[in-house]
Design brief:
Layout: H1 12-17, E1 40-44, H2 50-59, E2 63-65, E3 68-71, E4 74-78, E5 84-89, E6 92-96, H3 97-109, H4 113-121, H5 126-146
Antiparallel strand pairs: 1-6, 2-3, 3-4, 4-5
Helix pairs in contact: 3-5
């Protein structure tokens, strides 16, 4: 009797082109030069291991729905060119356009009055800046623990 293939394995084409998310999806690497893509931008905290998630996807150790994969409590979409992008889940944070922009400023220059003034002049609402500051503070605490 022939063994049935795991339906959660990526297709041969998916497996051949699968690449990790772009650096712009790493919360710690967002900077002022990177513009948000779309209204919602998902960033991963530093402890999210994209490599481990890719290994699990390639092994069929998640759930696959077409080009969507759920693995290690995180959801990804495989774009046509083979790049994964994170959607939601453990260690992933969804930011609006303004919060993504603010996080780039905070990562580059810190949370200062000058940065806050510039973001306000650029039309980034306080609620989005507050969201970005929360992420930035978690990043700062993580960096301090790393030594």
């Amino acid at each position: 009797m022939e063994e049935e293939q795991n339906p959660n394995l990526p297709t041969p084409r998916q497996a051949a082109i699968l690449r990790p998310p772009n650096r712009r999806h790493r919360a710690s690497q967002v900077n002022r030069r990177w513009l948000p893509h779309g209204e919602i931008n998902t960033v991963a905290m530093p402890w999210v291991d994209f490599g481990q998630d890719i290994v699990a996807i390639l092994a069929g150790n998640g759930i696959r729905h077409g080009n969507r994969f759920v693995v290690n409590e995180r959801e990804y979409v495989l774009e046509g060119g083979g790049r994964l992008f994170p959607v939601s889940g453990e260690g992933l944070i969804q930011l609006g356009r303004g919060a993504y922009i603010a996080l780039g400023w905070y990562n580059d220059l810190g949370v200062t009055g000058a940065v806050e003034g510039q973001l306000q002049r650029n039309g980034v609402y306080e609620a989005e800046r507050a969201r970005a500051r929360d992420v930035w503070r978690v990043l700062q605490a993580w960096r301090q623990r790393q030594g």
